[in-house]
Structure formats: C-alpha cells, structure tokens
Amino acid sequence: MKSYSLPSFDTYPISVHEFMPTNPNKKTIVLAPAIAVPQKFYFNLARYLADKGCNVFTFDYRGIGTSLSKNISSLKSAGFLTWALDFKTISKYAKERFPENKNYMIGHSYGGNSIGLSDAHQYYDKYLTVGSQFGYYKHFTKRMQILIYLNFKCFVPLTTAILGYYPSRWFGLGRSLPTQAAKDWATFLLHPESMLFFKKESTSIYYKDLKKPMLLISIEDDLFAPKKSVDILGDLVYKNASVTRKHLKPDDFNLKSIGHFDFFRTKNRDILWHFIDDWFQL
Question: What pLDDT sits at residue 169?
Fold first, then answer.
C-alpha cells in the first residue's frame, strides 16, 4: 500500500491510498466513501480486492479523514459538488495510471450518488453501489423521518452557524463535516428532488449520461437506505444505465444484521463479498 496526495481541480490536496496486486488482472477499482466515513474503513476490502489482482484506490473527500489539511471551519465551499470533483480527480488519475485496465467503481451511500455529480463516469466500465439511495426522507421509516427532519432542519443550521462546521459525531453520524457538505446533505434528504435538486445549482450534472452496467445493492435492515429509496434511485436517477438490483436480507445469510455498514466489514468477507467478485468477474 502506498499513500500520497493528489491535487484536486483547485489544487486542494486529496489523500489517496493505492493497493497494489502481486498478480495484476488488468482491473482497477476505485472505492468512493460514504458521507463522513474515512477511507480507512474500506482498507480491508481494498486489500482483499488487491489480493484478487486488482489495482485499488481509496481516498478521502476534502475535509474528511486525512484530507483535512486545513481547519474544517475554513473549508467554506467543501460540499457535494466539490466532493464529486475530488472523486473525478481520483478517477482520472487511476485511469491514466493504468490505461489498459478495465476501470470499476464501488460506491458506498453518497459515494454511489456522486457518480453523476461530475463527468467522472467517463472513466468507468462498470459500477457497484451499496446503500446508495434517492435520499428524500419521506421514503424512510416514520421513526427515521422524525430523526432526519429534526437533525437536518434544526441541528444542522444551528450547529454550523455557531461552530462553523457540523459535529456529526454528536449525532452518531461519523466524522465532522464542513458546513456546505452538511447543508448539501440536508438538501439531499429534505428536498423532494434529493440529488436531482443540484441540477438547479450546477449545469454540470451527468446522471442521464450514465449508461454502463450498474449493480445497486440494498439491505433489508439498512435504515439509511431503505429498499424503496434504492429502487427509486435506479428507476428515476440511473434510468439510462443498465441497472441490476440486488436486495439482501440478513436472514438469508444467517446474520442478525447488516445495516448500512457491515457489508464492508471483514467479518462478512466470506458471506457477502462474493457479490463484488461475481459482478466484476474477479
């Protein structure tokens, strides 16, 4: 594993880790993280994929993990659209580093939503997402609707105004977020158009241009990405892609739970990671 930084579109340094295979199979995989989740969470999966022969890249969006190179309150413009350009930076680099490879992408939650927020799709041959969803909160359970509304309607504007950032840890939502990222998350969840609302803020939205094969995985006990919201993502947002849906139920694998995160944990390597192997033919 090598660690280094790459300058994003505006020269901001993005932290990258590259996992190199012993026996390359001419396949590159980029892992795009969920909101407020540092790249190290995906290291075990990255090592597994490298052992399979893949060149694997992980990274942190600006303001997260080891891409927090400034005071978080100073990152005024760090939000969903700049994060998508950070992802594009890594995608372009990975393709240029191994131009003969097939390029694949695994997106977790927002990571899977970010594909169309820039034209990074041009660098990929196939996609897989886990827990990526059309985020409008009214597609969630009643309990989650209440929690989402209170948090993102009240606490996000309050804490960002006072602190200059969003203390996600206080609410059990991972690493602290720059103000704009927290506000974009609120838009993503509270606005009926979810991520499609960002078309009104930027003409550089490319969801309609995604036409490659895409596996969308939902999980029965994932409170952050209920099945209905993942179905809508495939039907409405990625409607031009060649979408395959897979819905996982913990009981089918003799598991008590999987939730929003456990797909990526090593304890489920022999139980769940074969879906990645099968989709990318590793």
Answer: 86
Q: Which residues contact 203 (CB under 8 A, 6 or more apart)?
A: none
pLDDT class of 173 with cuts at 50, 70, 90: confident
Name the CATH superfamily, with its identifier, for domain 2-280.
Answer: Alpha/Beta hydrolase fold, catalytic domain (3.40.50.1820)
* Residue 63 near residue 33, CB atoms below 8 Å: no
Beta bridge partners of 165: 178
Distance CA 6, CA 96 (A): 13
- Asked if 218 contacts 245 with a C-beta cutoff of 8 angstroms, the reply is yes
Task: Name residue, tokens 């739970």.
Answer: 257
DSSP state of 176: -
Report whether 40 contacts 19 (CB < 8 A).
Answer: no
pLDDT in tens, 257-271: 999 999 999 999 999
Q: How far apart are CA 114 and CA 34, in angstroms?
A: 10
Q: Which two tokens stand for residue 249?
A: 């139920």
Whether the model clears a pTM of 0.85, i.e. scores above it, the answer is: yes
Eight-class DSSP state of 34: P
3-state SS, one letter per residue, for 194-231: HHHHHHHCCCCCCHHHCCCEEEEEEECCCCCCCHHHHH
pLDDT higher than 90, residue 114? yes
Instruction: Please give the distance of CA 237 from its chain centroid, rounded to a whole number.
Output: 15
Identify the residue whose tokens are 């209440």: 146
Question: Would you state the structure tokens that stand for residue 35, as one six-digit string?
Answer: 């909101």
Identify the CA nearest to 25 among candidates 6, 49, 3, 9: 49
Round to whole Å and give the CA distance between 108 and 7.
23
